[in-house]
């Protein structure tokens, strides 16, 4: 079976590979965080969260760059809302 000329099995393979890579990155980040993260570090990339951002966005876990990435990703996956 094909969708837009691409075999469905190929689409599924790429989706599975992408999901596995994302899981591996997440696990690697979590293991690294257990060892090195301070409360002022981004839980995604490990970079320091600017003090001003920590003051303005209480309880934030992400630096501004990662927060922007997640906001854009959420916007795209929620149909542009």
From TrEMBL:
One of its GO terms (molecular function) is zinc ion binding. Signal peptide: none annotated. InterPro entries: Znf_DskA_TraR. Keywords: Metal-binding, Zinc, Zinc-finger. Residues 40-68 form the Zinc finger DksA/TraR C4-type domain. PROSITE patterns: ZF_DKSA_2. This is Zinc finger DksA/TraR C4-type domain-containing protein. The lineage of its organism: Bacteria, Pseudomonadati, Pseudomonadota, Gammaproteobacteria, Cellvibrionales.
